Amino acid sequence: MSNTNIFSLPPELLLIIFADNSLDNRDVANCQSTCKRFRQITKDLPIHYTFRVDHVAQPAWKLIRHLLVYPRIAKRITSINVTWHRRQPVKLETWTREWRWEEAEKEKIEAIGERRLSTRTIGAIFQGLNSEALLPFLLCLTPNLESLDIGDAVLSFIQPEYSIFEAVRLIEYSSTGVDRTWQGSEGSHRDSAGRYLDKVMDAVRPGYPSLWFHENIRPGDWLPGLVNLKKFYHSCVKYGDPYDSNYGWPIVFLRRIMLLPNIRKIKIKRATCMKDGLYMPISRGGPPKDFQSSLKSLEILGTFIQQEEYDVIAKLTGSLEYLALNPRFCGDHRDHLHLSGKGTLVDDTLLAARKPYMQPFLQYNQGILTDRQVVFTEDEFKWNVEERRRFLNVYLDQEFGPMDDEIDSEE
């Protein structure tokens, strides 16, 4: 009987086994600790890292501290998947404590980030409360990154809604470990709490609804982790009214992502061109001189943008082979019900309604993209019959007057 076992396999086969996607980073670390041979084989394997924003165990901060000592490891990170664990006022177990740096660590962070990150981002890193600020710093250290999944981002520093006193109590606990309940709702107590909260929030977060990641995307002066990026995904968590056009992350940053030199696939969801009731369009400027898009696949789903924005986006393409759209407008909320999924209109009418949205992409990707490669996906915000009826009868009637029966016939 043969005595063949895993230790007798050639290095080439062991490398295939250890690189299998079914093994996570912990599995690979266990393999490395088995013997010197396994450690030698696995030491250069790609790392697929899960970046946990504001997790109570503070893994992002611990990773950065480790990479400041062993920067070579960061070059093995080829994909980052972001998960969100924001503090919630009603759940004490989510109140992540503040982290603190050694002076030598601060000096290294400043040396690495001073020409790559905004000054406010470095300040937020030193503040030690919002670990999302560590993501752009990680991108300073990961030149071989190929995939970045922002996930369903929680745009607010505290999730979801909160009072001034809840926020101050939470932040004080994160900083000091003391759980002090703030009292009162008027007068000096509220003013004092409000001033304290404003000061902290200005330091730990960029202007809502942006992220620190957004603030540090600068075309032509890319963070090293964005230079070789091939896949990108960005959405935001669903809460509040999904039919509020202020709901979503700022789509103005999509243009910057599309200018990445090696990007192949972009998928975005729940973005908007509205902020505080004001229309914030994507830059009207065309692509930079001599720019050639490498983008092959683009999915724009559940976004609140007007029709002309699709033409602006299309100008930044040129080699698309796949396009998926799910329009949700800042204008007439009724239209997207017909454009999403199968709809209720006859095929010719539905095609005519969709044509203005796909035509710019067909024009700028002529000879590559055809209408058969364009997909209009179903509305991702599923509603039951009662929710649908309430939305149509109350909100739309108030905004646009009585509706006809055409949409109700879908039920």
Automatic annotation (TrEMBL):
Species per Swiss-Prot/TrEMBL record: Dactylellina haptotyla (strain CBS 200.50)
Protein name: F-box domain-containing protein
Domain F-box: 7-44
InterPro entries named among the record's database cross-references: F-box-like_dom_sf, F-box_dom
Residue runs in coiled coils: none
Top-level taxon: Eukaryota
